[in-house]
Amino acid sequence: MNIHHLAKRVFSLLPGFHQTSRGLAAGTCSSCWKPPWCYGVTSQTSLNYNHTRRLTLSTSKGRRGERSGEHTEDQDDGDGDSIEDAEVDELFRQQVPKDLGDGEHGVFIVHPHVKWGGRKQYLTTAELMVEEAVGLVKTLDNWRVVAQIILSTKTPEKKKIFGKGNFQFLTEKIRQTPGITAVFVNVDRLSPSSEREFEEAWGVKVLDRYSVVLHIFRRNARTREAKLQISLAEIPLLRSRLKNEIENFDQQGGSNRYIGGSGETQLEFQQRLLKERETKIRSSLERLRRKRQLLRSHRKHKDFPVISVMGYTNCGKTSLIKALTGDRGLQPRDRLFATLDVTVHAGQLPSHMTVLYVDTIGFLSQLPHQLIDSFSATLEDVKHSDLIVHVRDVSHPETVNQKVNVLSVLKSLQIPDRLLSSMIEVHNKIDLVPDYRASEPGAVPVSALTEQGLDRLHVVLEEEVVRSTGKLILNLKVDLSSPQLSWLYREATVQNVNVDADEGSAVVTVIIGTAAHGRYRKMFPPGR
Ligand SMILES: Nc1nc2c(ncn2[C@@H]2O[C@H](COP(=O)(O)OP(=O)(O)OP(=O)(O)O)[C@@H](O)[C@H]2O)c(=O)[nH]1
Ligand SMILES: [Mg+2]
Hints:
It is a single chain. Helices cover 40% and strands 18% of the residues. By secondary structure, it is α/β, with parallel strands linked by helices. It has four domains: 3-92 and 226-286, no CATH class; 105-216, Rossmann fold (3-Layer(aba) Sandwich), CATH 3.40.50; 303-468, P-loop containing nucleotide triphosphate hydrolases (Rossmann fold, 3-Layer(aba) Sandwich); 471-523, Alpha-Beta Plaits (2-Layer Sandwich), CATH 3.30.70. One of its GO terms (cellular component) is cytoplasm. Keywords: GTP-binding, Magnesium, Metal-binding, Nucleotide-binding.
């Protein structure tokens, strides 16, 4: 590859760069005069207060395919944000770390099985890990598994994943098997040098869990926030790829060349662009985070308790929320990472108290921290909820391992202790396990599909919500000629009204927050 080819390839990694008649140049952003790395950041920094309108708990069909009763929260209403939307789309479209395209792929899965040492996986088997890798591949349309293999590796602490013999065997097998367009090495992250070495030896694309999961995310992303978070998670991949390209070219001394008197080498220049890009994405995400804060304070003002529904991917989180809220717009899918955007759904508890269920992105074992960190803005919502429901698929052979995994991720997300200790564990899919009995005390067995166990779950949720929000259940005597009753209907949850027609009064059972109760007493002082 000569310097022009290299430069073309490297620059093609970065959005907006093109070759002009005068050589390599940065193009300008499609929506302003700035260079292309302004994508994702606009001059509009003020918060759009229109966002709060989305919290109205209507069940009407929203815009842009918004599902009924669902609030994705980072979608904007006004035209004022359309430019930003376009920029995010552009950023998302252009920043593809590895061009896997939308076409068909025949994947060869290689699972390096570590038999001992620090990287050995406990609580699982190689076969189940391969099964999970197969599940990931099948999640992608037009992707199929051509072959799969488990190879023992005895050198887990060394740089090289495979011993010499195994590597040769693998290379022959890949070359001899027809229809392979990619090899999925089932490890968290491959080092840039391993990736390059494998691609050179095998002549096809080489993927690891990080890149496969990101590709799934990319396909499933709907909202601006998800797209930005994915773009951020892709930066490390772009960085590795850049390093690979440059190292490859280094033998020719290319990366040490200075660019047009700038005092920067190619590598330094590219790295700086990526850094700038990362900063811009982070600042866009920060603005979205601030909007979320605004939404949260609005919810708090409305006094709706918030229940976050979490769990391993495909365990049935969306299905459970659908069953609890009756929201027919929700679409559970037998896919990993079907849900990528935090959405909020209103439901009612037996006392008619309105609660908001937050549907969240699922977890997966051994997801690199960088990936989780990218989604921390979304997951921050969980920290501010009143209750967490941990859904488990008890029909899954890995259910115990999945639980361990979810709990360890929750810990790493610094979820407050009060939420961890009050967490409700729901054992889902009991219809697939004949005569299921929950072994853990306090766990609530249900089937989101057949709706078995939902009544009990509703009751447990209500008890815990009342406890965790410090709400009071009170019997208040109201004068029917005053606006007391209508005030209570508006500001609290009225459970029961017992009218005494002779006295023109009623005893009203309400669930009410302490702040609302204070306001009530101020407006309607006792003995007035
Ligand atoms: N048999 C049975 N299937 C269920 C049950 N709950 C969910 N499913 C199925 O499990 C699959 C995944 O359901 P989802 O609700 O999309 O799972 P999720 O946890 O939201 O998945 P992600 O968003 O991808 O993390 C779908 O095919 C559901 O129909 C259940 O109680 N019983
Ligand atoms: Mg889901």
